[in-house]
Amino acid sequence: MTQTSTRPRRLSPAEVHALLGEPEAMVKGKIQDHIDEYFRLFIAHSPFLSMATADAEGRADCSPRGDYPGFVKVLDDHTLAIPDRPGNKIADSFRNLAENDGIGLLFLIPGLRETLRVNGRAYPTDDPDVLARMQTEAKDPVLAIVVEVAEAYFHCGRALIRSRLWDPASQALADEIPSVGEIAATQFGMDIDPMALTHALEEGYRKLY
């Protein structure tokens, strides 16, 4: 018998609100419109963030960004700059920002349960003064993303606690996943030794700088 696929029921905003209820006053009050001294400290120690953008049609993309702690620079209380390091050159984020300049950032610090969320507007720049501040091992990025901050606030650690993200025992989960070489060889039908492909990719990672 052929099964008919059905989409899960869509809830209205009113139904969602009825289920979740109102946030506490302290939760609403923690949202700021600028980067204060504590946000600066968090950003200065963060080596990783997730960056969310969307195009004019609302098609969303979330991109990982990482480098040495403090790779994102605070230009002033209302402005951040994110270096664009070598990657896959697909440039989804840049295409999205050309159509829709809204952006959302989620900063993480290894071992810390709380995260920092920053929302605002963004655009690419090649300003030499900005790029010079992002020099890494004598190399400047070609581009940077300037973020004009509209909201910034700390997010509680419930998600990271539940996920056990920083628990060393959780790293054993990686052993249950095929290597990136095995996955690529299968997905792209490549007639190549998966182990050799994995080594080649790892060598490429080591040459990022």
Plain-language structure description:
- Residues 36-156 form the Pyridoxamine 5'-phosphate oxidase N-terminal domain.
- It comes from Streptomyces endocoffeicus.
- This is Pyridoxamine 5'-phosphate oxidase family protein.
- By secondary structure, the protein is an alpha+beta fold.
- It is 30% helix and 26% strand.
- The chain has eight helices and seven strands, in the order αααββββαββαβααα.
- It has helices at residues 13-20, 25-29, 37-45, 92-99, 128-132, 158-163, 180-187, 194-206; strands at residues 48-54, 60-66, 73-76, 79-84, 102-108, 115-125, 143-155.
- A seven-stranded antiparallel beta sheet has the order 2-1-5-6-7-4-3, covered by helices on one side.
- α7 (180-187) packs across α8 (194-206).
- The N and C termini lie far apart (56 Å).
- The mean pLDDT is 87.
Task: Please describe the structure with a list of short key phrases separated by commas or semicolons.
single chain; alpha+beta; seven-stranded antiparallel β-sheet; 8 helices; 7 strands; 30% helix; globular; Split_barrel_FMN-bd; Pyridox_Oxase_FMN-dep
Summarize the structure.
The protein is of the alpha+beta class and 209 residues long.
Query: Uncertain runs with pLDDT below 50, 5 residues or more?
Result: none
Oligomer: single chain
Radius of gyration: 20 Å
Strand order of the largest sheet: 2-1-5-6-7-4-3
How much β-strand is present in the residues? 25-35%
Largest sheet: 7 strands, antiparallel
Along the chain, the helix and strand elements come as HHHEEEEHEEHEHHH
Helix content: 25-40%
Q: How many E strands?
A: 7
Protein name: Pyridoxamine 5'-phosphate oxidase family protein
Domain Pyridoxamine 5'-phosphate oxidase N-terminal: 36-156
Pfam family, one: PNPOx_N
